[in-house]
Design goal:
This protein has 14 helices and 20 strands. By secondary structure, the protein is α+β, with helices and mostly antiparallel strands. It starts with a strand and ends with a helix.
């Protein structure tokens, strides 16, 4: 493989190295061709995905959106989920503002209709702020969650209604930082005082959105911006070798399954490095022909076969010296934190985030047998309690594409670009439906489709179009450099 090899790099703990290749000459031209090909591929797929939701999800009678859609877009349940109503309004508005080809009246009118549906029906008992989780087709509440997430996605939809968004944001901050009693969760003496990474993640995302084009709003939430970032960073545990989904309120690891749970794949506890048995040298991350791979120190570091994934021939398996775990929230949190680092002008934070929230989850979360990111894993390598732990879901792969491409855009590290290619190739091959459009959401471990539905209570018009839209913008920016 052509190009200039850079010095191997080690992280702050000296636990591993990366073999980085910098294209030059003909290789540089080939890299641009690859970027251009992916931009066109992503752009075409975004058009197909949006067309699917435009055709099948709009409720012309009551407003809002159907999300329980079969493979061909047929509605199989008309319940409406507030998470997904808010997300689809946000997605349509974002596409309308950011892309000339989506500045279509029908897209804007559908977003308005969805927003009006939420304004009319989302709150369970106005003027109270608590939102329903599930509504009937005509807007009657069915179920309420004792969390903040329906309210968060309500804010995403109401971004254009600044007073409504700010009122709800201030209520959420009160619930999270001062008094959670309004959420309706009873205090139980045996329940650990824990913090899920999802909470500061979601707030950090909202802070960025609200302050994106409003300096006054950015100033109002500047302290919250920093608070959220610090709360996410405290989920990096075990001397920097694990990102745990749940920690105590003071940033310590929790006991039991709750504490060991990862929605963000990391290494087995006790491993100071990814090491070959009998060696005290760290492994390297290399890549060839767009495929990333891990190499033990004794491996021949010459050319490798195209398409190699995992650790061929080195006897490291799910029950070997390395436990493989799935990627999801850590990768999504990673690109939220990268945006935060950009806002703060903090290159040290950016480097830390790339190491701990992008590379660490990827190298431990990628399935060496079948490709793709495992969904859940236990940090100690014990049997996960979640039945779907070994499945491959659409949203971690969508978030991985965003995170890895953003990491490359911010750092220029070619290893991140080639990891993006690896995830994107798997994702397009396994999740997309060339016949009916949109992506399948739920795959078996071997990559076969487990559920043919295109939408449901948790999958709607959000992760896939957001991923494709953001990747198209980043690829376009890279090609313009």
């Amino acid at each position: 493989m052509g190009g200039a090899k850079l010095d191997q790099l080690s992280d702050s703990h000296g636990t591993w190295t990366r073999s980085v290749w910098l294209p030059e000459g003909e290789d540089m031209e080939k890299e641009r061709e690859t970027l251009q090909a992916w931009k066109e591929r992503v752009e075409q797929e975004l058009d197909r995905v949006v067309a699917f939701w435009m055709e099948h999800s709009h409720d012309q009678e009551h407003g809002g959106f159907f999300t329980c859609l079969g493979r061909d877009g047929k509605v199989y349940d008309d319940l409406k989920y507030v998470w997904l109503q808010g997300r689809q309004v946000w997605t349509y508005c974002r596409l309308y503002r950011k892309f000339e080809r989506f500045r279509r009246p029908e897209l804007l009118e559908s977003a308005k209709a969805g927003g009006e549906f939420l304004l009319r029906y989302a709150r369970v008992a106005p003027p109270g702020k608590k939102c329903a989780f599930v509504l009937t087709r005509d807007g009657r509440p069915v179920k309420v969650q004792r969390t903040i997430f329906s309210e968060c996605f309500y804010i995403m939809a109401m971004d254009g209604e600044s007073s409504e968004a700010v009122e709800m944001m201030d209520q959420i901050v009160h619930w999270v930082r001062k008094d959670p009693s309004g959420l309706g969760r009873p205090w139980l003496p045996g329940a650990p005082a824990s913090e899920s990474m999802a909470v500061p993640m979601m707030l950090l995302n909202l802070v960025e959105q609200l302050g994106e084009a409003d300096k006054e709003m950015a100033s109002k939430y500047a302290e919250l911006d920093d608070w959220c970032a610090q709360r996410i960073l405290q989920h990096v545990q075990r001397d920097g070798q694990a990102v745990l989904e749940n920690v105590s309120e003071d940033g310590k690891e929790l006991p039991g399954c709750l504490g060991r749970h990862q929605n963000a794949g990391e290494e087995q506890a006790g491993l100071g490095a990814i090491q070959e048995k009998g060696s005290d040298q760290p492994w390297s991350l290399g890549f060839s022909m767009g495929t990333a791979f891990l190499l033990p120190p004794s491996a021949n570091q010459g050319p490798v076969k195209e398409g190699v994934t995992g650790l061929p021939g080195w006897g490291i398996s799910r029950r070997g010296s390395l436990e493989w775990t799935g990627g999801g929230h850590a990768l999504e949190a990673g690109w939220f934190l990268l945006r935060h680092a950009t806002r703060k002008g903090d290159p040290e934070l950016r480097a830390h985030v790339i190491d701990k929230f992008l590379l660490l989850p990827f190298r431990s979360g990628w399935d060496p047998d079948h490709g793709g990111l495992l969904y859940f894993q236990d940090v100690d390598g014990l049997c996960p309690t979640q039945l779907e732990w070994a499945m491959k879901l659409w949203w971690p792969h969508s978030e991985a594409m965003i995170a890895l491409l953003m990491g490359y855009s911010d750092s220029g590290d070619p290893a991140l670009l080639h990891l993006f290619y690896q995830v994107a190739e798997y994702t397009f091959r396994q999740f997309r439906d060339p016949e009916h459009g949109e992506w399948f959401g739920y795959l078996n471990r071997d990559g076969t489709v487990a559920l043919t539905i295109k939408g449901g209570p948790f999958k709607g018009c959000f992760h896939v179009p957001r991923c494709l839209a953001m990747c198209e913008e980043m690829l376009d920016a890279l090609l313009s450099r």
